[in-house]
Design brief:
This protein is mainly alpha-helical and 386 residues long. It has 2 domains: 284 residues, Fido-like domain (Fic-like fold, Orthogonal Bundle), CATH 1.10.3290.10; 68 residues, Orthogonal Bundle (Arc Repressor Mutant, subunit A). It contains 15 helices and 5 strands. The protein has a 3-stranded antiparallel β-sheet. A hairpin with a 6-residue loop joins strand 1 and strand 2. Helix 1 packs parallel to helix 11, helix 7 runs antiparallel to helix 8 and helix 13 crosses helix 14. The protein is elongated and about 75 Å long. It comes from Haloglomus irregulare. This is Fic family protein. Pfam families: Fic (PF02661), Fic_N (PF13784).
């Protein structure tokens, strides 16, 4: 839409700039206040119900710690994929199995490093939020530095706002790129976001999360990493507001499945004031991910019960079968520590479970073999390959 032709209801305006005008959003809070329709209220209530269900079931299962870590890694992978990275959930599990205590001496492949950075930043951010800290600009910049560690592009500014204009290609062919505000506007806009977060927003936390995410992505304050950081902030904000008792839902898988609509709905807010359509999309993302997480957790609980029924004895094989949900990716030598057994016994356990098809070797190597728990991986990855 050409500059000067935006309707009055839009939360910003285009400013002339060569070769394309840039979009200057109004500072937060949004004025005049947004009217929340009955439909959005109903959708918000449904999303809240689903989030409550997954919080209730996830925190009670014996494997909650592993589930928590696995879901963070799934989110890290999905967020990296939205940016075009070629990385799998298994890659992160393999990395942590191979390097349980320290980083390797050799460089990590860029796509994997980006996903690992996301996992590190999200885990760190959640820890700080759960200790009572709030989202500030300095906190946001610190997270940005963590996300781009060793994956920055030449010319990128890490840990501070960009000092140059950026052009974001449209997912629709023939549509001009979206140009976020100029560097001179960033401090004031981001300070308004910080103030909005500190005051607790204006609406229900789920709606405020949608407003915050739209605003952050539209301002696009950094030279790179805005998408990853913006999605991460959704989780931190809802956790900080006490809305996610335990953060078992993550939005990136939904945004990745609907990537074009994700971009277009935010652009429609800027150019048409289409808040309701954006709220509907965003809330459906949270609702569907919560529903999926509940189903996943329920399936894992049933799988645990099956293993306990099929392997009730006290042999090393039985004991480890019942622990597969705690150790879904491992090497045979790992079992020496897990089970306090000899290497010979550990390899016998691996042979037995491989014969029962509970585990599968994934490297194809003769030495240094690695194994994954087939059923556990199938359940965890079901949400990422729909």
């Amino acid at each position: 839409m050409p500059p000067g032709e935006l309707p009055d209801r839009t939360p910003g305006t285009y400013v002339e700039y060569h070769p394309n005008p840039y979009y200057l959003p109004d500072s937060l809070p949004v004025e005049p206040a947004i009217t929340i329709s009955d439909e959005v209220h109903d959708q918000k209530a449904d999303a809240a119900y689903q989030i409550g269900r997954v919080d209730g079931i996830s925190s009670t299962v014996e494997f909650s710690a592993v589930l928590y870590t696995s879901l963070i890694r799934i989110e890290a992978v999905e967020s990296a994929r939205i940016e075009g990275a070629d990385v799998e959930f298994q890659d992160l599990e393999a990395y942590h199995t191979q390097h349980p205590t320290e980083e390797p001496d050799t460089p990590i492949e860029r796509d994997l490093k980006g996903a690992l950075n996301y996992e590190t930043a999200l885990t760190y951010g959640l820890d700080r939020i759960e200790k009572g800290e709030t989202i500030t600009l300095s906190f946001i910049k610190e997270l940005h530095s963590m996300l781009l560690a060793d994956v920055r592009n030449e010319g990128d500014i890490v840990g501070d706002f960009r000092d140059h204009m950026v052009h974001l290609p449209s997912p629709q062919s023939g549509q001009r790129p979206f140009v976020p505000p100029s560097p001179e506007q960033l401090d004031g806009l981001m300070q308004s976001l910080e103030s909005y977060l500190q005051m607790g927003g204006q609406y229900h936390p789920l709606v405020d999360a949608a407003i915050m995410h739209y605003f952050f992505e539209t301002v696009h304050p950094f030279s790179d990493g805005n998408g990853r950081l913006g999605r991460l902030l959704i989780i931190l904000y809802l956790t900080g507001e006490g809305y996610l008792e335990s953060p078992y839902i993550y939005p990136s898988a939904y945004f990745n499945r609907h990537k074009i609509e994700y971009v277009e709905r935010m652009r429609a807010v800027s150019e048409e004031g289409a808040w309701e359509a954006w709220f509907e999309f965003f809330l459906e993302g949270l609702r569907s991910q919560a529903e999926q997480s509940y189903s996943r957790t329920h399936q894992l609980r049933k799988l645990q019960q099956r293993y306990e029924s099929q392997y009730p004895g006290n042999t090393a094989t039985d004991r480890f079968a019942r622990q597969l949900l705690q150790y879904p990716y491992f090497t045979a030598p790992d079992l020496v520590d897990y089970l306090d057994v000899s290497r010979r016994t550990a390899y016998k356990v691996v042979d037995a479970l491989e014969e029962d098809r509970l585990i599968k070797e994934v490297t194809g190597k003769e030495r240094g073999k690695e194994y994954k728990a087939v059923d556990v991986f199938d359940i965890l990855q079901s949400s990422t390959h729909d």
